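re: the backbone from monday

yeah here it is again, tokenized this time
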């Protein structure tokens, strides 16, 4: 009986003709597209201001394995293991060349060659290792350094700092040199060769990481430690469907590439550099948005990761905290108070967008950043991120900016935000973008809420502006115009107004939600960014229209460029590649659309609805108030298993949880380790009422 193919392994006999769609390997610090002669390191940029871009780092592993004898080639990406392998098969030998960005030791990349005889023979077998590597970069002036324990060593600095007078970062590479060929000797039935590359900032840390790599090789733990780290990640999150192989592969690909963009769960030494639309493998000069960090990180990629991994969610928030000084400088340069997070961010938090108008006008980024902090608090109730972690400075600095940026009108007794660019970038210098004003209102309200939680006196202006900021609404047509003066039927670039319903959760009647969707869907650019249709699908799922949701989700598959499930920004293959923003939007359509999951102040809502071609949806590892939950959704029932707490005896116990069903008001306690099954319906999970405060408040 034929073995079922593993859905986590993407396999092909031929590489994609466009090398942009080769799979990227990354670990939150290093990123490389297989076979490319360049790679990138998180936080290493070259160029000042709008010229700032990820610095190209030469990669010694730009090596292809070749044989004189004709061979059958297969190329596989094992997403469970985070390993890309090229296999060459002949009658006499099987050769495999594997690459991976080490998932635990983030400064480390690995190439391994394995040769195994298939027949008894006394002939040597040679494999050529053809390299395109040169130890040079357009962005970093490298010099040779003394070899270290058999490893080649180069070091250099970028040519231009991000800010005038700033320090140019230093990059060190130490690697085991790759020979021109390897040979399986006559007396050998098989042999293995291992090569490590370490990329670091200082000579000392790079040498120390190289020592770690050598020790792992000597002990046989190099690959094992990498596999264990990926196994730990996948144990914390799984999204699988029964009934649609295409959807299953797409979801696995999205999870793999998004997780690859985030740091190790155990990362302590390297500050996280944020997530850019094309990930770490892309973003050189003039390429894939220069590797800058946008709202894409906070709104499109973050929610799907935060649902499973509080620690990885925290790394995004800490990235924003480290850019507070730059955000303060941006606000002052615009003539406003508080913090203005850059539309395009690198390391300093100062605006690095090549075109001024976006940095000046696309100010909804401020509310998007706050939304991520709010999401984190509601999922974890962890106030330490806001006190010792300085998250409160972010939230309150954004609130101060909105107050100073808003303009009072005595005519309509309302506040207005003038001269902005909405998420729909077809329009600029407009007044009262509905998305911008709504996200400003919500972030002001959250600032007041947070101040109350940690007993900080909230300025009355936060409350006043939140209450009186105008939210454009057409009372006659009962829909939200995209901005003041928008005429229904004007073309739209991407999801904008429809995001009021999700992710903002802005209250509105179902009729208005439907009208918004119907108004904007037919005028949205069909070749616009990939993440758009996921937001429309979520809207229709909210309204119970599964057919319309499915029709829109199907559009997303045009952006997936096989065989390695790499996304392009546009459906014709153009735009940014390894487009994590599109993957994040698609993943949310499943995680928050089919399930109806909503992260709310006092509860975790659900309203499941599956299409006919999906019989089961498994979502394992949902993290809520210190608990981990596994969900199984079927057409007519829901099953939740609350995992048993695995912390040590001294660790704080998580909250006791219960399910509350909306229609019947039935309350069902969730008992750790025991399945809780009930008919499919709307409800929520919340803390069991207690006179004691819950972890970690």
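seq for it, each position gets an aa:
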């Amino acid at each position: 009986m034929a073995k079922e193919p593993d859905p986590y392994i993407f396999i092909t006999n031929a590489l994609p003709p466009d090398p942009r769609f080769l799979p990227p390997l990354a670990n939150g610090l290093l990123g490389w597209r297989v076979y490319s002669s360049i790679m990138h390191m998180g936080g290493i940029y070259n160029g000042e201001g709008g010229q700032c871009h990820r610095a190209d780092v030469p990669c010694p592993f730009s090596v292809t394995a070749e044989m004189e004898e004709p061979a059958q080639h297969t190329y596989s990406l094992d997403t469970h293991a985070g390993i890309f392998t090229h296999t060459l098969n002949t009658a006499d030998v099987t050769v495999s060349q594997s690459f991976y960005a080490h998932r635990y030791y983030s400064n480390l990349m690995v190439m391994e060659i394995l040769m195994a005889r298939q027949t008894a023979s006394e002939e040597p077998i040679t494999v050529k290792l053809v390299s395109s590597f040169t130890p040079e970069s357009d962005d970093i002036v490298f010099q040779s350094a003394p070899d270290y324990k058999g490893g080649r060593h180069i070091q250099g600095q970028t040519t231009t700092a991000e800010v005038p007078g700033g320090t140019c970062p230093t990059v060190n590479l130490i690697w085991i040199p790759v020979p021109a060929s390897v040979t399986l000797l006559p007396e050998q039935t098989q042999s293995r060769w291992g090569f490590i590359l370490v990329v670091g900032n200082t000579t000392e840390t790079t040498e120390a990481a190289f020592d770690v790599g050598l020790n792992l090789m000597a002990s046989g733990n190099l690959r094992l430690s990498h596999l264990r780290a990926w196994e730990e990640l996948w144990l914390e999150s799984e999204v699988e469907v029964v009934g649609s192989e295409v959807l299953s592969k797409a979801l696995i690909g999205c999870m793999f590439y998004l997780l690859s963009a985030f740091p190790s769960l155990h990362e302590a030494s390297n500050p996280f550099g944020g997530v850019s639309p094309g990930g770490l493998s892309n973003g050189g000069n003039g390429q894939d948005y220069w590797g800058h960090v946008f709202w894409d990180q906070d709104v499109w990629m973050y929610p799907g990761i935060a649902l499973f991994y509080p620690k990885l969610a925290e790394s995004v928030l800490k990235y924003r905290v480290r850019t507070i000084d730059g955000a303060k400088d941006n606000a002052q340069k615009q003539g406003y108070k508080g913090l203005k997070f850059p539309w395009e961010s690198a390391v300093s938090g100062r605006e690095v967008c090549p075109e001024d108008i976006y940095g000046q006008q696309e100010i909804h980024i401020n509310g998007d950043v706050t939304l991520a902090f709010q999401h984190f608090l509601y999922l974890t109730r962890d106030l330490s991120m806001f006190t010792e972690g300085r998250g409160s400075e972010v939230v309150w600095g954004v609130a101060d900016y909105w107050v100073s940026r808003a303009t009072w009108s005595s005519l309509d007794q309302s506040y207005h935000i003038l001269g902005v660019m909405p998420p729909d970038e077809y329009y600029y210098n407009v007044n009262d973008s509905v998305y911008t004003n709504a996200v400003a209102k919500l972030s002001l309200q959250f600032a007041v809420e947070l101040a109350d939680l940690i007993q900080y006196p909230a300025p009355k202006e936060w409350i006043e502006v939140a209450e009186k900021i105008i939210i454009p609404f057409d009372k006659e047509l009962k829909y939200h115009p995209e901005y003041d003066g928008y005429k229904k039927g004007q073309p739209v670039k991407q999801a904008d107004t429809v995001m009021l319903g999700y992710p903002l959760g802005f209250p509105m009647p179902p009729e208005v939600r439907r009208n918004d969707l119907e108004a904007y869907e037919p005028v949205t650019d069909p070749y616009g960014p990939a993440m758009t249709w996921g937001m429309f699908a979520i809207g229709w799922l909210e309204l119970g229209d599964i057919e319309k949701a499915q029709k829109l989700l199907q559009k997303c598959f045009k952006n997936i460029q096989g065989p390695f499930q790499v996304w392009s920004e546009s459906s014709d293959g153009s735009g940014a590649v390894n487009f994590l923003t599109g993957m994040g939007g698609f993943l949310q359509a499943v995680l928050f659309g089919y399930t109806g999951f909503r992260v709310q102040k006092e509860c975790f809502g659900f309203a499941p609805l599956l299409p006919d071609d999906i019989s089961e949806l498994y979502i394992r590892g949902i993290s809520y108030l210190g608990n981990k939950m596994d969900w199984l959704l079927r057409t007519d029932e829901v099953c939740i298993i609350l995992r048993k707490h695995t912390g040590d005896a001294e660790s704080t116990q998580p909250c006791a949880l219960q399910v509350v069903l909306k229609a019947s008001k039935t309350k069902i306690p969730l008992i750790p380790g025991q399945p809780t099954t009930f008919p499919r319906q709307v409800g929520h999970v919340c803390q069991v009422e207690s006179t004691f405060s819950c972890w970690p408040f």
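The chain has a mean pLDDT of 95. The longest helix spans residues 434-453.
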